[in-house]
């Protein structure tokens, strides 16, 4: 797959996730956040499972001498990815109890700036110099989005910022796993194991800490199906497929379009509005997201080729 097509797939992922913010928000009227996270990923896992089975059978027919499609190393990596994914989406869902869809979309998008920062701190990957002014822009944008005062940030906003850190960790680790030269690597299998891991963690924790009932599942069924099958089963699987053909920073920038789609759908469907300073904050955050990817690309293209 060409990189441009992979990036367009990731843009589609951003649009689906943007709509998913609305579904996640309205679901909180009927179901508690951790239970919702668990049940939505159970739906996602069931939706993707047939493709994972097909993937294993296809590989077994194509090259039976290569051994099992799922090695122990990959299984461990996929479970770790699932645990990180659950932590990120669980904190985001808790945040949506007390923040708006628009705020949640843009604050989650801060992970675009955090990806290279964490790459430096954890993987010793030196980021492009643009990351530092981009980080300053992001912090300024968050300040304005909160109404010009850090006390204006709700508890939900802080939960969402934690989500952004965890999501950056997921993008980095997923890129690292997908970059490994391993014949047993398979995106549908990866997605299915991720989702089942999320489902088990969510349902077990919800059983201990939340009110779990079939009535709440029925009441939130449309949101569960959209967040599970579309935002989860379809979008996360597309991410796993597309990110094999692009870089982690490029993946982050295209998926960050979910912030714009979240604001758009939040305004159209939920009638959400923010003040003028909030719009300026959103603009600064999105500018930082774009700068992190576009400026390094432009400088790379401008560099003279040595023949």
Automatic annotation (TrEMBL):
TM segment ranges: 33-54, 75-94, 106-123, 130-152, 158-178, 190-209, 215-238, 250-270, 276-298
Membrane topology: Multi-pass membrane protein
SUPFAM superfamilies: Multidrug resistance efflux transporter EmrE
Keywords: Cell membrane, Membrane, Transmembrane, Transmembrane helix
Keyword Amino-acid biosynthesis: no
Pfam families documented for this protein: EamA (PF00892)
Occurrences of domain EamA (ranges): 6-146, 155-290
Location relative to the cell: Cell membrane
GO cellular component: plasma membrane
Name of the protein described by the UniProt record: MFS transporter
Organism, as annotated: Ahrensia marina
